[in-house]
Specification:
Elements: H1 2-17, H2 31-46, E1 52-57, E2 72-75, E3 84-92, E4 99-115, E5 130-136, E6 153-154, E7 169-170, E8 173-175, E9 180-187, E10 190-198, E11 202-203, E12 207-212, E13 217-222, E14 227-230
Parallel strand pairs: 9-14
Antiparallel strand pairs: 1-4, 2-3, 3-4, 4-5, 6-7, 8-11, 9-10, 10-12, 12-13, 13-14
Length: 232
């Protein structure tokens, strides 16, 4: 009897002295998996970009501990562009999900148009005025197609070797201020022509105001060869 009591007492003491069972640690998100999702997203986004594209995915802070997630989605933050230094978001599409931003750098090199010599305001671009050089595209990228520059007029002075941008050039004026123009009014079953004086400069397709013989000012659309089309 005493022996059995002693055994029961020892068993009780062993249970009391035993350390509590520890909960298994929660799984954490592998950073390599996040970077893989970002890499695949970036490759998809830049696949249709022109020129030579190089990308670099930044490192994720090793101190960042996130719960493991099997449903990850990459996204581009609002207002961001895939040019230069930017970031790509990754969100966990599960209950109590999370989101982080991973730094990304995208470089795009293309052949852009540059001036071969200084160009003065009002000069009409000719083929000899431009050449191409490999440049990195920025947010204010330049022109790459010569057809978009040749025949255009220089808005302001351009230095030699400067990359040409769309805002530097304009279409040539088909109507100039003070020019006597032909006003063509067209409607259903009729067409009337008269003369007037243009009150502003305008390229083909742009709005222009014209003072006609009666002194009345009318609005129309500049056409070619000094014609202004008015639709009643």
């Amino acid at each position: 009897m005493k022996k059995r009591l002693l055994i029961n007492l020892l068993l009780l003491l062993s249970v009391v002295a035993a350390p509590p069972a520890q909960a298994s640690p929660k799984a954490t998100q592998d950073h390599a998996r996040i970077k893989a999702v970002v890499t695949a997203f970036v490759r998809q986004q830049v696949a249709s970009l022109p020129g030579q594209v190089t990308t670099q995915i930044g490192e994720i802070d090793n101190r960042l501990v996130l719960p493991a997630c099997t449903n990850l989605e990459a996204f581009l933050p609002a207002g961001s562009q895939f040019v230069g230094k930017t970031s790509v978001g990754v969100r966990c599409q599960e209950e109590n999900g999370w989101s982080i931003f991973v730094p990304v750098q995208v470089k795009i090199s293309v052949n852009l148009l540059v001036s071969t010599h200084p160009l003065t305001p009002g000069h009409t671009i000719e083929a000899s005025d431009i050449t191409t050089q490999t440049s990195e595209i920025g947010r204010n990228s330049g022109l790459s197609n010569p057809e978009l520059a040749i025949g255009k007029v220089v808005r302001f002075g351009i230095g030699a070797g400067q990359v040409l941008r769309e805002d530097m050039l304009r279409l040539p004026y088909s109507v100039t201020q003070g020019m006597v123009v032909q006003v063509a009014a067209q409607g259903s079953g009729f067409s009337i022509r008269s003369e007037g004086v243009a009150l502003n400069n305008a390229s083909t397709g742009q709005a222009v105001q014209v003072r006609v013989g009666s002194g009345r000012v009318i609005s129309g659309i500049a056409g070619s060869s000094g014609v202004v089309v008015v639709t009643p």
